[in-house]
Design a protein that fits this description.
Shape: globular
Structural class: alpha/beta
Number of strands: 25
Radius of gyration: 28 Å
Helix content: 25-40%
Strand content: 15-25%
Distance between the termini: 89 Å
């Protein structure tokens, strides 16, 4: 009997973190990519706009890539596609109608659409990408057109849930295809890769219908303007806001680039329904009575340049907060964003707004399954091996515990790290040699050109500032012709620290005199002779470690 090749499961991102979701399935020298997302930078990633997985392994093996399959249209699953296609083109990308529509918009903005190979599929459809047979199954999430995937290979079937929940009364779409999931389980599943985001939460997730009722109640009671901040890709929530505005006779004004773009795409594709005359431009909205307008915008995560954040600071060019405005934050802070969201809420209260936020008010429900739904998924799929995905380590841990509760043996449960290679077959499953992976930082148009050293420098600058030492010397003798002059930014206020600065200059003059006596003219050595004594002096006097940057200018001998 010929032994079948083993199937490899390799996460490039999304394990031990929120976002950056990207998974590889390898079989018989062929690679299938599941999702291609980004994550938002943490507080210590100063100046960084986005973070994506390191795809160097895929660049080296690009000839082996069969296709990319996308589960849904959220940024943590599609956000890295433009950056991916700059490195690896000619890869077919499969997704549902809305997902492909949102990818198209991103590629248009990056001038990559002409070269892209986008393939639209529907839930319930099956495609062949030899040696893979893929069945797409409808699931509910906080964005329409989300799908799970059954990936069949000669060595067994992998089921990847993507992000999901079981909503019995969803908004504007059908419930999860339980029959489709159950059928995959009945046919036999080698491994289940399942969303772990809410594995800590007991019971069942709340239906979107509950939020709809609460939003309607808030709109009916509000006397002044209503400002709603939520995720621009949360189309079910946007529809609820639009419906509530329509029922209360209000117009909608949209603020935020992504909110405008996603609303337009969803309306064109039929995923948002409202009369065209409901939308008004912001400049015209300012002329309407307060009780006739709703502002729908970005900023639910306290992003620095998002609309709601700018309104809270008072520097939005078109919208100023009115006392008595009702502000609704219809989103839960992503881990790491709690502080910035809290600051935004505080500023809104200070300006006289009524701010409604928090889970206890039921103005937001999660798009991810709770514990009982996660157990149900495992029971329907009946996998031999279980791999929790999407979440920080504690989420993966709690999900693995749930899997044991419903009968998956502990030895058949694998918590994978980014870059790990899990080989699975009917006979065994084990971690093989890992691949190189990590985080690639995106700053403006630069991809990967900001690394740990640059981040360290930015951190020093942000915490202790910079001291610039300017010295002019004679090229051959090393004689000091001018300086040393000290310029400080972010360290101390020069006018109030003259004694400190003069003492620093005195010590530098002494160090430079010693260099001249020893005929030291090498720039590298001179810079060290400037930095070392200055750093020690500054630390002893202030207990600070500013960045020290010597600038040496040479002039020829007379």
């Amino acid at each position: 009997m010929i032994k079948k090749p083993e199937l490899s499961i390799i996460p490039l991102g999304g394990r031990g973190e929120i976002g950056n979701n990207m998974m590889l399935i390898e079989y018989n020298n062929e690679i299938l990519i599941l999702d291609c997302g980004i994550m938002f930078p943490t507080e210590d990633m100063l100046g960084i706009d986005l973070v994506m997985p390191d795809i160097s392994y895929l660049i080296k093996n690009k000839d082996r890539i069969k296709a990319m399959l996308i589960s849904h249209g959220h940024e943590d699953h599609i956000g890295a596609i433009p950056y991916f296609l700059r490195e690896i083109s000619n890869i077919p990308i499969y997704g549902t109608k809305l997902t492909i529509g949102m990818i198209k918009k991103k590629l248009e903005e990056n001038r990559l659409l002409k070269e892209a190979k986008l393939r639209e599929i529907s839930a319930g459809e099956e495609i062949s990408l030899n040696p893979f047979q893929i069945k797409f199954v409808k699931v509910n999430h906080s964005i329409p057109d989300a799908v799970a995937m059954g990936i069949k290979t000669p060595s067994g079937t992998i089921v990847y849930t993507g992000d999901f929940k079981f909503d019995q009364t969803p908004i504007n779409e059908e419930p999860t295809d339980f029959n489709g999931l159950t059928k995959l389980g009945e046919e036999g599943v080698l491994a289940l890769l399942s969303d772990s985001t809410n594995a800590e939460h007991k019971g069942y997730s709340i239906s979107e219908r509950v939020v709809e009722e609460n939003i309607n109640g808030i709109f009916e009671k509000a006397k002044g303007r209503i400002i709603v901040a939520t995720f621009s890709s949360h189309l079910d929530r946007l529809q609820q806001i639009i419906n509530a505005a329509y029922k209360t006779g209000r117009k909608i004004a949209i603020s935020g680039r992504s909110m405008i773009a996603n609303t337009k795409i969803a309306k064109e594709l039929g995923y948002l329904n409202f009369p065209d005359d409901m939308l008004v431009e912001i400049r015209k909205a300012n002329n309407l009575p307060d009780h006739k307008i709703v502002y729908m915008m970005t900023g639910s995560q306290g992003e620095t340049m998002a609309s709601l954040t700018r309104i809270s600071r008072g520097d939005h060019r078109q919208i100023n907060l009115h006392k008595g405005d009702t502000v609704l934050l219809s989103a839960t802070p992503i881990p790491g964003n709690e502080r910035s969201v809290g600051e935004t809420i505080n500023k809104l209260f200070e300006k006289g707004a009524k701010v409604i936020y928090g889970r206890e008010l039921d103005v937001h429900v999660s798009g991810h399954a709770y514990q009982e739904e996660l157990k149900m998924m495992i029971n329907m799929i009946k996998p031999k091996y279980f791999v929790p995905v999407h979440g920080e380590y504690r989420h993966l841990y709690h999900h693995s515990t749930l899997a044991q509760e419903v009968g998956i043996p502990e030895e058949n449960i694998f918590i994978a790290k980014n870059g790990s290679r899990l080989n699975v077959s009917e006979d065994k499953a084990y971690f093989a040699s890992s691949i190189s992976t990590g985080k690639v930082l995106i700053d403006g148009t630069g991809i990967g050109d900001v690394g740990n050293i640059v981040l360290r420098d930015r951190r020093i600058l942000s915490e202790h500032g910079i001291i610039i030492v300017v010295v002019t010397i004679e090229s051959k003798t090393g004689k000091v012709l001018a300086g040393p002059d000290i310029i400080s930014r972010g360290f101390v206020y020069m006018k109030e620290s003259q004694e400190l600065i003069e003492e620093a200059k005195s010590r530098l003059t002494k160090a430079l005199d010693e260099c001249q006596e020893k005929n030291i003219t090498d720039w590298s050595t001179l810079k060290t002779k400037i930095k070392d004594p200055l750093r020690d002096f500054i630390y002893n006097e202030t207990r600070r470690n500013p960045m020290i940057m010597p600038i040496i200018m040479e002039v020829p001998n007379k």
